[in-house]
Structure formats: C-alpha cells, structure tokens
From TrEMBL:
GO cellular component: histone deacetylase complex
Region of interest (Disordered), residue spans: 430-494
EC number assigned by the record: 3.5.1.98
Residue stretches making up the Histone deacetylase domain: 82-370
Species whose genome carries this gene: Clitoria ternatea
Name of the protein described by the UniProt record: histone deacetylase
Keyword Chaperone: no
Family annotation (Pfam families): Hist_deacetyl (PF00850)
Lineage: Eukaryota, Viridiplantae, Streptophyta, Embryophyta, Tracheophyta
C-alpha cells in the first residue's frame, strides 16, 4: 500500500504497518523499584473523576524545572522551502527569556549525545552514516541515502550529525535529571522527533531522542508512559516498544490518508505488549472541547491503571489551529491543557517538542507550556523581543482558533473513547519487573557532573563544538535565514539573521535590558542542590 505523505511534497511513502515492529529495542533492566523515587511523587495520588487539572500556579505545588537549550540549535537549516525550521526553538527561547521565565528554572546546555549513546537504539551502520554524510559527499552515496531514507523529507544539511547529537543530548539529559530527582519536570523543545526508526530517517526525524530518553528512564522506573499530541502518529516510539509492557504509548493523531499512515485504533501492541499501545485516531478540525473529551478520560484511566514511574509528553505543535502542515483546530490553551493535566499527577515529567510548522505559533505554544510547567500564567500581551515582528498584527501570546468544520462527530468520539477505555479495562494490574542491579547512567552524565566542564557548559560566549575526544572542530553550522512561510506568506516575516548579523541569544540576554534575565547564568542554589542530590544518590548506592 502506498500512502501519499501529506507533509511530504517530494516522495511517496511505503506504508509499513506498525504490526511490523522492525525496530524493537532491547530494554535495560530496572533497578530496585523504589530506589530513586522522586521526592515530589505522591504515590497515593487519588484519581478525581473531574480531572486533576490544576489551576496554574495556585495549587501550592511549584515544580522544579530543568530546561535544555543549545544556542546553536537555531542555526541548523534543513534547506530552502523545507517546513522544519530549528529556528523556532530559538524563537521559543527568546520568548521565554523576555517573559522572564528563565530565572525560574535551571537552564542547561545539553551535552552532545555520542555515537554509542545513539546506538542504544539505532543501528551502528545507520549512526556511522549520519556521522559521515555531508552535502558535499552525498552524491557519492546514493545507495546509502536510499537505504536510510535520507535525502528528501530528511535532507542532508550542514551540521546534520551535530544537530542530532544536540537534540538527543537534551532529551537523554532530561531523563538523567529526572532519574536523579534533580527536577520534577525536564524540558527539551528541540527534541520529540518521534518518526525516526532504528535504521531509517523519517518525517524530518533522524535519530529518535524519545526512544533514547525512555530507555534511560527505564533504568530507574519499572514503567514509563509515553504520550504524543503531535498531529502525526508517534510511529517510531510505538514501534520501538510495541512488544513490551514496560512502556505504554498513547498517540492522539490525525488518521486517514495522512503521514505516516499508521496509528489505527486497532493497533494495540503485540505479545507482552498487547494493550500497551493506544492509538486515538482523529479527523480534521478537532477543537479543544472535543480533544479534551478524549484526552482526559483516557489519560486519567491510563494513569490509574498503568501507574507509570515517569511520563514523557511529546508536545508537537502541528496539532494547533493554522499549522502549515496540520489540519486540527486546537488553541494554545487547548494544547497546553494536556500539559497541565499530565503535570497534575505529580509524576516525573519529560516535556519534548516535535512537529510544528507555523513557527510563530510553535514559539507561542512552547513558551506558554513552559509557563504551565512552572505554574506561571503569562500575559497575553507579548513583551518586546528580537523576533517581535513575527507576532503582528496583534502581538499576543494566544491566537483564536479558526471557524473550520470539526469533522469529528460526537458519536465517533464517544465510540473511540469507549473502545480505548474497554482496551484499558483489560489491564487489571500494572505490570512489574524483578529487582535488578541498577544499570549505569548514560555516559552523558559523566560530563554533566564534571565540575571542570561546568564553566564551559555555561559560558554564554562558548559556541565551540568538540569531537568525541573533546577537541575543537571547525564550525560546520550554516546560519539560518527566515524564509516566508508559503502557506500564508506573512509580510512581516523579515529575512533576519544573516550569518554576519546573527546574534547569539545568550549574548543578547547577558547584556539584556530585560529585568531579571541575567540569571541565564547558572543558578548557584541549583548547582549546590544538584551536588547534594548526587552525593545522596551515591551514598544510597554504596549502602
Ligand atoms: Zn507532526
């Protein structure tokens, strides 16, 4: 079966049923279940049939948030006309800085994931290929390009491999912080690339940072829940964990003649994993109310029955109204309600990015959701900042949904909800795994804890790339310019950031006129706490 990819104007996509779990992954053994229990986790939380949504900021339970951001990430450029724009991560960061949110969280530059980190899920030859390919050499490797599905939707661009290392490093780093109880919520808006497969790029995704982060979480937690609110099916993550009960995947997505073609409500997992994959197929124009009429009852039931030790929420913003590739009609508040709801369970939470192609709305959404994570409500009136002109004519954080038709009838929504709740009712108990010795952390942590490196990590002027041996390598990153988005051709999208004029956000923030944002430098109280936490953990282990 061949499905025309909606978000791919170049290629046809060979439909691969998720029943062909080609890239299943070897799971780490878990350590003793209660070790590393998260300090803020209330193990006796009680389900409330009305939903546990917290009025932001008034629940008296602030969360400690670690936020991963690499100032280089906005410079990677998929190529002219390509809808995926890493620049949106930099726009999000600028909004966070100017809304004054950075000072409320631990801001971390991710440690680049190394080959061996990526190979915990991906095939060695695929990783070697990604490391070696360049725009200049790709013509000599046509067979390999085809084999690994690189070249069209997933183009070769300058710095491709370091881009992968950066976004994967942020997600795995977030999992490490959660595992060590250093934060309640970790955020990596550059991550969430849910389509990547074990030996294949797909849907603008090269390495699957989500699978890698979940593997890290599984070292501490018996069960990890993955929730995906991107408009596209979270196929790469589902496939990786299709035959295990240690990861439950739940994806809400547009289904029917739409990339990637998988995610039927009847795809429920296989073998030990049967009933541990949930798919919520939706149609065009879904609005906030319809979406939440499924999200809350289903996720409430999942939390009650599965009782995960950690939750990974992929917050793809292409499910927002007006997305360049999407066809849903969610408001930013409707999208963020999913974050608010999952946060309300007080379980360690990893928030990741994903799709999102009307980039001004992506930045709005992830900024607002960072506020939700922190329990801070943000003014609708946007502060002045370097990308302010993107947000005209209203210069507001929120945008009204459109009047498009909602093709999801009440009857169909009720039927889908009933079907999924019925599947869940077949799971009487949360599965457990035997006690094991704790597997070592991903090696990222070595450097993460290395005090010698801390200054370099935090140096706002440092844009040095290093190789595996930490020797500097020449800059390979091309600065991005912003092209007009062809869907709505906004005249206020200026061509900015030519290489010469490009200003590092860190630099700008450090001499910023905005009050409070100079705390972009490391928060000393957090460092101390982090050291104490790590010491406590190593004491615990040696006992
Ligand atoms: Zn998507």
């Amino acid at each position: 079966m061949v499905v025309r990819r909606k978000d791919c104007k170049f290629t046809e996509f060979n439909f691969k049923s998720s029943l062909q779990w080609r890239s299943g992954v070897e799971l780490p053994e878990v350590n003793c279940p209660n070790f590393g229990a998260h300090p803020s986790v209330n193990k006796n939380w009680v389900m409330d049939s009305g939903g546990n949504s917290l009025p932001s900021g008034s629940d008296g339970l602030k969360r400690k948030v670690s936020y991963f951001y690499d100032p280089e990430v906005g410079n990677y450029y998929y190529g002219q006309g390509h809808p995926m724009k890493p620049h949106r991560i930099r726009m999000t960061h600028a909004l966070l800085a100017h809304y004054g949110l950075l000072q409320h969280m631990q801001v971390l530059k991710p440690t680049a994931a190394k080959d061996r980190d990526l190979c915990k899920f991906h095939a060695d030859d695929y990783v070697a290929f990604l490391r070696g390919i360049t725009p200049e050499t790709q013509q000599d490797q046509l067979r390999q390009l085809k084999r690994f599905n690189v070249g069209e939707d997933c183009p070769v661009f300058d710095g491709l491999y370091s881009f992968c290392q950066t976004y994967a490093g942020g997600s795995v780093g977030g999992a490490l912080k959660l595992n060590h109880g250093i934060c309640d919520i970790a955020i990596n808006w550059a991550g969430g690339l849910h389509h990547a497969k074990k030996c294949e790029a797909s849907g603008f995704c090269y390495v699957n940072d989500i699978v890698l982060a979940i593997l890290e979480l599984l070292k501490i937690h018996e069960r990890v829940l993955y929730v995906d609110i991107d408009i596209h099916h979270g196929d790469g993550v589902e496939e990786a964990f299709y035959t295990t009960d240690r990861v439950m995947t739940v994806s809400f997505h547009k289904f029917g003649d739409y990339f990637p073609g998988t995610g039927d409500v009847r795809d429920i997992g296989h073998g030990k994993g049967k009933y541990y994959s949930l798919n919520v197929p939706l149609d065009d124009g879904i609005d906030d109310e319809s979406y939440q009429s499924l999200f809350k009852p289903i996720m409430g039931k999942v939390m009650e029955i599965y009782r995960p030790g950690a939750v990974v929420l992929q917050c793809g913003a292409d499910s927002l109204s007006g997305d360049r590739l999407g066809c849903f009609n969610l408001s930013i508040k409707g999208h963020a309600e999913c974050v608010k709801y999952m946060r309300s369970f007080n379980v360690p939470l990893l928030l990741l990015g994903g799709g999102g192609y009307t980039i001004r709305n992506v930045a709005r959404c992830w900024c607002y959701e960072t506020g939700v994570a922190l329990g801070i409500e943000l003014d609708d009136k946007m502060p002045q900042h370097e990308y302010y002109e993107y947000f005209g004519p209203d210069y507001t954080l929120h945008v009204a949904p459109s009047n498009m038709e909602n093709k999801n009838s009440r009857y169909l929504l009720d039927e889908i909800r009933a079907k999924l709740l019925d599947n869940l009712s077949r799971l009487q108990h949360a599965p457990s795994v035997p006690f094991q010795e704790r597997p070592p952390d991903a090696e990222l942590q070595e450097r993460d804890e290395d005090q010698d490196d801390r200054d370099e990590r935090w140096d706002p002027d440092s844009d040095m790339e290093v190789d595996d041996d930490r020797n500097p390598v020449p800059r390979r990153v091309k600065s991005e310019y912003v092209e007009a988005e062809n869907k709505d051709a906004e005249s206020y999208h200026k061509h900015v950031d030519s290489g010469r004029d490009f200003v590092m956000p860190f630099k700008e923030i450090s001499c910023s006129k905005v009050s409070g944002v100079d705390s972009m430098v490391v928060d000393e109280s957090y460092i101390k706490e982090e050291q104490d936490n790590l010491k406590e953990l190593s004491d615990h282990r040696s006992r």
